[in-house]
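Q: How would the structure tokens look for this protein?
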Amino acid sequence: MKKLAAEFIGTFALVFAGTGAIVIDETTGGAVTHVGVALTFGLIVLAMIYTVGDISGAHLNPAVSLGFLAARRFPLRQAVPYIASQCGGALAASGVLRLLFPQNEMLGTTVPAGSAIQSFVLELILTATLMFVILSVSTGAAEKGITAGIVVGAVIGLEAMFAGPICGASMNPARSLGPAVMSGHFQHLWIYLLAPVIGACIGVLGCRCVRESGCCSGQRFPSHQGCVCFGNFNAESQSA
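A: Here is the predicted structure in token form.
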């Protein structure tokens, strides 16, 4: 239950701060700026990784949990409640923003600026890159795990900065689900539910192409004993 609570709180903080930055930027006529929104997403993820990473692994993202499941680093019996907690946290955060900013129509809902297929492909590639980075920094020497939060936060901020104006750079089904449900805008939600999941699986394939044999192929702990679950820097602490 502590792991699920950590995922709920961490995802709540991610969606509240990230989409809250979008809402406040719209409310104040651009005071936060697009760069500020991108940095907000990156920094809140960084903070939550170091805050709850040693408790739950700080997935904060159903696509990441499914990516770890595809990589055989995470059991199905935990993936389902993790995803439920993440979606619950996102819905709660968007609900609070609805109460605080009832005049805002979108609440940070992700929508394509161009065609649906353009945003779908962008979201797929962005999430594949993110998952590849997450798997890579959570594999190998312990020193890499210690800096995982910085690397992952930086990638999220970077991707949001350059791709956000086109596709929203969600990379996270829960992040898109919360605002869509609370604002009632479901037209393009399928893009942001489906593309990140496919992208995360592609990221797993990329990791298998470059990492040692066994890293993402079904062994609980690979032979080099350095493959650790995202956010947990001691392989021996992983009973899952």
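The mean pLDDT is 88.

Residues 2-27 form the longest helix (26 residues).

Upvote if useful.
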